[in-house]
Amino acid sequence: MANPTHQKQENKSMLLEAPRPRPSVLQTKNFMAITIKMLTDATTQELHRGRLVISNSEVFTVHLCGMLTKVTPTSTYTDYTFYDGTGSIEARIWPEALNFQHDLTPPRLKKYYMIVGEPRHETQGVAALYLLSARLITNHNDITHHFFTTIYEHLQLLQLAEKSSQQCTPSTTFSKETQLKEAILQFLSTTEMRENEEGASFRTILQTVHMDSNTGRSILNNLLEEGKVYNTIDYEHFKTTAD
């Protein structure tokens, strides 16, 4: 662990090394795009006010897409098993609940559905839903769009939860990092950089924003993790994800 007397010499590197406050759990009612694995993992974690937690947010209603692989009817309900590449989930409906929108009559095995439901957490490590709606996917671009949406919402929720917990962050350090991030994003948002398919090189960014290599690398890594920039032709070229 670094000696406190060396903090001034390592002022810039400490920005990433300093422990951050543990994000608080968001309690805003939501309609969350997820993968099945996200829900499965959530069942192994501690509940918050009786609800599952994904991306530091309480889970209310979710939507996901998956292939229908199995139908298990019983005398009181029917379980539909879906698989999305990350895991399997059982979605349950009752005969008297068939007034919602669905394309499961008849069910089409090996076809993809966009489903909406409320999570059940009866068994640890098992993903399950109370099914609210099911739509047969006829345009497979919907599958790609769903996974991109899931990634984007996941990053947004993590950022919101972290912001709600940033009460003990030193204002001067946070302000410096924020200023550098904003300067990089503003530069990448210029018309010249938007029209350049390769984006801006790491060296160009350093020269434009006036920062050293270590600081630039750390802040760009943060922006990559936050989903605000992405690499183009290699790991040394960057573009902004903003419209």
Automatic annotation (TrEMBL):
UniProt subcellular location: Nucleus
Pfam families the UniProt entry points to: RPA_C
BP GO annotations: DNA recombination; DNA repair
Nucleus as UniProt keyword: yes
InterPro entries hit by this protein: NA-bd_OB-fold (IPR012340), RFA2-like (IPR040260), RPA_C (IPR014892), WH-like_DNA-bd_sf (IPR036388), WH_DNA-bd_sf (IPR036390)
Keywords: DNA damage, DNA recombination, DNA repair, DNA-binding, Nucleus
GO cellular component term of the entry, any: nucleus
GO molecular function, one term: DNA binding
Residue ranges, annotated region (Disordered): 1-20
Domain Replication protein A C-terminal, residue spans: 171-234
PANTHER family given in the database record: REPLICATION PROTEIN A 32 KDA SUBUNIT B (PTHR13989:SF49), REPLICATION PROTEIN A-RELATED (PTHR13989)
Similarity remark: Belongs to the replication factor A protein 2 family.
Protein's name according to its UniProt entry: Replication protein A C-terminal domain-containing protein
Organism field: Urochloa decumbens
